[in-house]
Amino acid sequence: MNGPEIQISFAPALGLFVSAERRGGHTPVTTDGASSLGHLVESLGVPLTEAGRLLVDGRPVPPSHVPAAGETVDVEGVQRPQPVPGAPLRFLLDVHLGTLARRLRLLGVDAAYESEDIGDPALAALSAKERRVMLSRDRGLLRRRELWAGAYVYSDRPDDQLRDVLERFAPPLAPWTRCTACNGPLAEADKDAVRERLEKGTEHTYDVFAQCTACERVYWRGAHHARLEAIVTDAVREFGGTPAAG
Q1: What pLDDT, in 10s, does the model give residues 146-205?
Q2: Distance of CA 109 to the CA centre of its chain
Q3: For the Mut7-C RNAse domain, which residue ranges apply (predicted)?
Q4: How far apart are CA 36 and CA 32, in angstroms?
């Protein structure tokens, strides 16, 4: 580029996305004099989903602002908890975040999940069509213009991923109300009504059942219940909600 020079700095939380030399305060950038600030921020590595306020000489500007020579730009991190206006808070997760999707559903959070790689354009279009926040570790996907909203998942560990999403968006929690397999709502089920769907021996061991109203999968307090209960208890204690009986 051969145009106006500006000074730019990024919040410490954005250090993951920018080169090492841009992590210590304001550094010079030569612009082309025509591109928007949003385009410039993304060209330096930061998806706009992760950028909070954009300040030029201390005043907020939109991503469409075209930087002028001598301006000082500060790129803040997103506000936490982050408001998502315009639709009920719900999520769409890409193929690499299956465990996170199941844990969000366990907590009653509306979390659609694509178990097959349908491609970035299709995911972005689905995010826009259903007005879901796209959760991904794919920075390229989060830069797609057709996304309705998105967020980078910073960790590769499911425990940390869950905590990050709950802290960032503060979704209301309603544990044990969604099917972890398909995201459909659960309803109490009579033992006689689901008897044919139970595993051998289960009908003699358990008496409380729930069934998905969408895919008809049946749930009961099986061998993994204690581990799931711990996930629910920890999340409710830290982020609020009602620890309904599982």
Answers
A1: 999 999 999 999 999 999 999 999 999 999 999 999 999 998 876 555 555 555 555 544
A2: 11
A3: 90-231
A4: 10
**Is residue 171 within 8 Å of 109, Cβ to Cβ?**
yes
Coil vs helix vs strand at 50: helix
Burial 129-151 (b: 16+ CB within 10 A, else e): eeebbbbbebbebbbbeebbbbb
Q: Which of 228, 226, 207, 227 is nearest to 218 (CA)?
A: 207
**Whole-angstrom distance, CA of residue 113 vs CA of residue 102:** 9
CA nearest 151: which of 100, 198, 191, 195? Answer: 100
Three-class SS state of 1 = coil
Q: What is the Cα–Cα distance from 175 to 109, expressed in whole angstroms?
A: 8
* pTM for this model (two decimals): 0.88
Tokens of 25: 């305060």
Indicate the burial class of 73 (C-beta count within 10 angstroms; 0-12, 13-18, 19 or more): buried
CA neighbor of 191 nearest in space, from 170, 211, 162: 211
- Please state whether the peptide bond connecting residue 81 to the residue before it is cis, i.e. omega within 30 degrees of 0: yes
